[in-house]
Amino acid sequence: MGQRYYTIGMAGHIDHGKTTLTKALTNVDTDRLKEEKERQISIELGFAPLHINDEMEVSVVDVPGHERFIRQMIAGVAGIDLVILVVAADEGVMPQTREHLEILSFLGIERGIIAVSKIDRVDPEFVELVEDDIKEQLEGTVFQDAPIVLVDSLSHIGLDLLKSKIEEELNMIEEQKISGSFRLPIDQVFSVKGQGTVVRGTIYEGAVEVDRVLRVLPKNIEVKARQLQVHHHQVNTASAGQRVAINLGGVTKAEIKRGDVLVSSNDYIVTKTIDIALRFVNPLKYLIKQRAQVKCHIGTTEVMGKLIFFDRNEVENEEGEVLCQLRLDEEIVTKRGDRFILRRPTPAETIGGGWVVDPNAEKYRFGEATIKMLKDKQEGTPIERVKRTLNHHQVLSIADLSKETGITIEAIHELLDSPEMISIKEGMYSSASVISGIGEQILESVNQFHQLNPLMIGINKAEMSQLLSKKFKKDLIEFKINELIKEHTIKRVDQFISLYSFEPTFPAQWAKRMESVVLAIKNDGLNVLTWADYVSQSGLPAKEANDLLHFLLGKEQIYPLDDKLYLHQEALEHSINKLKAEKPEKFELKDAKETLQLSRKYLVPLLELYDKLKLTERLENHRVWVK
Questions:
Q1: Do 111 and 134 reside in the same domain of the chain?
Q2: What's the pLDDT at 39?
Q3: 219, 222, 610 from 255: Cα distances, Å
Q4: Where among 263, 278, 306 does a domain terminate?
C-alpha cells in the first residue's frame, strides 16, 4: 500500500488538556516557548510525530485554545485530515469548544474523535452526563457520529483505544494527492545559526525534493530547498500531508512571514479578489452589513478585506450558503476549493466560513444576473468550468487552465478529448464555442464584404484579421481561417478571402451601365478612348467605376496600354493573330504600323504590352515572337 501521510489537529477549550494528551500520545512536549511554560497555556502551534503503524506517518498539531490565539488555531487546523476535539470531564463543552467546532465545520473537516480528558477528576456518573452534553452539542454537526473516547493523559487510561480509533478514522480518509504542483502554506519562519532561513508548514499538495528551485508567493522570491526535515529527521523528499521544515537558500528570514506560500510552479494565483460560497454562524451576535470589514483566515494567512454582497445589503441570520465576494487589502495565494474562516475584527468573533469558488474574480454588478453567474461557477462540472474559463480568456495553456479553474493538470489532461476543448497548437487550447463564434464572425465579415463589393475577388485577409482582433486573439483567427479553408467553406486567392462558391458579378443596380462600358471598349478595338471617357459616357459613380476597372483587370478582360488607356482582350488577341499572320517570326515597328494601321499613340504601348506579356522579345531594332 505504501507510506501514507496524515495530519491530526488537537483542538478544544483552553486548559482542557490538549498539550498533555499530545505529550501522552507522542512523548513530545509541544509547549516549547518560555512563556508557554510559565503561563501553562499554548500560545503558538505545537507539532509532534505520532506512531500508529509502519504504513502511516502522522503529525499531531496542538493548537492554542485561548480565544486570543484563535488565528494560530485556524492556521493550525487548516489542512488537517482528522481532529481530536478535547473536552475536559470536569468542565464539559465550553465557549471555545463551540467556536472550534464552528471553525472546523467551516474548514470542511469532516472526521473527528471526541476525547473526554481528565476523567480521573470526576465520578463515573458525571462523565456520563458530560458525554450526553457532548452528544447534544454535536447534534446536527458533521461530528454528531464521531466516536467518544474517555482518556486520562497522566495515567494513560484510554490511550490505546484512542490510538485504535485514530487508525480507524485515518483508514477511511482519502489519501492526499502527491501528484500535482507543490504547495506549502508557511506557518513558522526562523533562522538557524550556520544554516540560514528555515520555514515550516504542512504540505497541502504535491511533493518537494532537496535542491528543488521554489518560489515564495505572493512576493515571488526564487529560493532553493537546501535541506528537508520531517520531525527533526533529515529526508530527501517530503509529500502532501507531511509536516516539513525546509532550509531555504536565496532568502533572509526578514523577507518571509507566516502566511506566505512556498510553491514549485506558476500554477497558483496571487489575488486580492475572490468569489466565495459563505456560510454564517447562526445566530449571529451582530448584523453583517454590505462592505463590512472582515478578517479572512485562509491557509496560514490572515488578511483584512471587505465583504461584498450581490443580492442583499445585510445579513442577520442566514442558514444557507451565500454567494458573494471578498475584496482583500493584501494579496493572497489560493485556488478553487480552498477553505477559509471570516472573523469580525471588533468585537472579535467568528462570523462564518466557506470555500473559494473563483480565485481570480472581477468586480460585478449588484443583482440576480451576478448571482446566477456565481451559481454557474459554483456548481459547474470540471468541463463546464474549463469551458467557461476558455470562453473568458479565449486561449490558455494547460498550466494556465489549471491555475484559473483550480482543476489539477492531471484532471485537465483527462478532459482533452472533450469536443468542448479545441487544440489550437501544441499545449494551447480554446473552447468550441469561442472557435465557432470566430467562424461566424469571419463568415459574416466575408459575406458582408461580398454584398458591398460584388465585383471584388474578396476581402483582404490582413484587414479582416485586424478588424476581428479587436474582439478575438489573432492566433485563433488564423486557426479558424485555415480550418474554414480546409472545410471548403471559404477560399483564399493571394491575400484575398472569399466564400468558397463566390464569383464576382456586376451589382444589379449598376449592371447595365457597367456592361455598356465593357461593350464600348470592345467595339472600339485598338483605337480606345480613355477610361475616364467611357466612365463619363456611362454615368457610373467613381467607386463603382474603380471597382469595375479592378474587376476587369483581375479577370483579364482588359489590359492596360498605359494608366489611362485600356484594351479589350478580344482586340488584343485580334492584333496578335493579324500581326503573326503577316510576320510569323519577327517584325519591326514599321511592319506593325503597316499591318495594324495604328498611330504611334497606340502602337508603341501595344508592342510594349506584348513584351510585358512575354509574347515578344526585343532584339536590337526588331521583335521576335516568343510564343
A1: yes
A2: 38
A3: 9, 11, 80
A4: 263
Grouping H, G, I as helix, E, B as strand and the rest as coil, residue 41 is: coil
Pairing, β 558-560 against β 566-568: antiparallel
How many Å apart are CA 339 and CA 355, to the nearest integer?
4
- The separation between the first and the last C-alpha atoms of the chain, rounded to the nearest angstrom, is 85
| Alpha carbon of residue 116 to chain centroid | 46
| CATH number of the domain within which 277 lies | 2.40.30.10
For residues 335 and 387, membership in a common domain is answered with no
In angstroms, rounded to a whole number, what is the distance separating the alpha carbons of residues 76 and 201?
Answer: 9
For 369-385, b/e burial (b = at least 16 CB within 10 A) is ebbebbeebbebebbeb
Boundaries of domain holding 194: 183-263
277 plus 212 within the same structural domain: no
d(CA 78, CA 63): 11
In whole angstroms, what is the distance from residue 385 CA to residue 401 CA?
10
CATH of the domain at 408: 1.10.10
Q: Report whether 218 contacts 331 (CB < 8 A).
A: yes
Asked whether residue 109 is domain-assigned, the answer is yes
If you search the block for the grid coordinates 477528576, which residue do you land on? 121
Q: How far apart are CA 378 and CA 492, in angstroms?
A: 44
**Residue 315 confidence (pLDDT):** 92
One domain for residues 16 and 161? yes
For residue range 452-508, list pLDDT tens digits in order.
Answer: 888 888 899 999 999 899 899 999 999 999 999 999 999 998 889 999 988 888 887
The contacts of residue 393 (CB under 8 Å, 6+ apart) are 400, 404
Domain of 519, CATH number, reads: 1.10.10.10
Boundary residue ending a domain (206, 241, 263): 263
Burial class (CB in 10 A: 0-12, 13-18, 19+), 585: exposed
- Is 178 inside any structural domain? no
Q: Are 98 and 68 in contact (CB under 8 A)?
A: no
Looking at the domain assignment, is residue 176 inside a domain? no
391 and 349 in one domain?
no
Name the band, by pLDDT with cuts 50, 70 and 90, for residue 71. Answer: low
Q: Looking at residue 174, what DSSP letter applies?
A: P
Same domain, 123 and 159: yes
What angle (nearest 5°) sits at the alpha carbon of residue 458, between those of residues 453 and 461?
125
Helix (H) or strand (E) holding 238: strand 237-239
388-to-355, 382, 433 alpha-carbon distances in Å = 19, 10, 10
